[in-house]
Sequence to fold (350 residues):
Amino acid sequence: MNQIKCGNAVFRFSVGPWNMHPGADPFGPPVRNELDFLEKLRLFKKLGFGAVQFHDDDVCPADLSPALTRKATRAMKAILREHGLEPEFVAPRLWEDPRTIDGGWTSNEPKHRKYALERSRRAIDIANELGTRRIVLWPAREGTYVREAKDPFASYKRYLDYLNALLDYDKKIVILGEMKPNEPMDAAYLPTPGHFLGMGAQTKDPKRVGILIESAHSLLVGVDPSDDMAFALAAGKLWGVHLNDQDGLKFDEDKAFGAVNLRRAFNQVWVLARGGFGRKGEWVGLDVKAMRSQKQAVAWKHLANSLAFFEALCGVVKRVNEATVSKLRDARDYEELEAYVVRLLMGARK
Fold:
């Protein structure tokens, strides 16, 4: 499972340590034991993952001195090498700090914006030490609960200033925006990939600003994830994905990829394959969570199932007859086209 060739794409897989979690949610405490980090790495490798996604404080505590941060990061790099894994990206986890309750870089408080920038620069240092150029920004609290609480013009300027400050800090990093329309904030600034790419085009170095698309985040906007992915691929800006599934416009459920809507999952794999995703080193990332009801012994199956569903859908993609699809499109026989896709998903060979 380490690598799958599918159409024009080469798929390799990554996962974050938070995807193996003890089952706490906003309404209840943990129900499983937290697995040791090294045990997670062994499991990831066994399942077929090749890279690990990191928040800055997954590598080491956020309050360490620069010297101790370097020491801890070098130790993590050695651990990854020992397990045959690579780092995919580092993301500053700003949303859990008390200083970012009103946002990080869009906060009304100058001292809080300063903290967000300093911690983000530290995340870049960690990424460099680990050996990755990818910095992922999930703007979890960059929005409002009450729309009048922030001046939108000032907020957008602060957003742009923050991106430019990161691009200035290190000329080699690339920034991937992971957009989400809501949760935890009621309404986010730049809620979609298109919004973020529009902002990225205004930065000092637009070539280094791209997108990470998460399936559930697109669904929370009410759009098909495959359309968001195709849009970003066509622009050369899809530099990462987080695959999962979602049962309607609810909270971010992070269900196993393909578990809710197999046809929707097929279209994501088809778009990624046709768009040549992975040929420039991009990873297919999972962001899936075990259901709270799962026992400790089987609380890893959401990962294995997501990989298995993805691989099976690659098999479906390989069976697609593009000439048949084109013929049906030209004839505007969309009922037959839909039936053709459904039959493929049901196991038809052609």
Summary: The chain is about 45% helix and 15% strand. The mean pLDDT is 97. Residues 4-319 form a domain with the TIM Barrel fold (CATH 3.20.20.150). The first helix runs from residue 37 to 47.
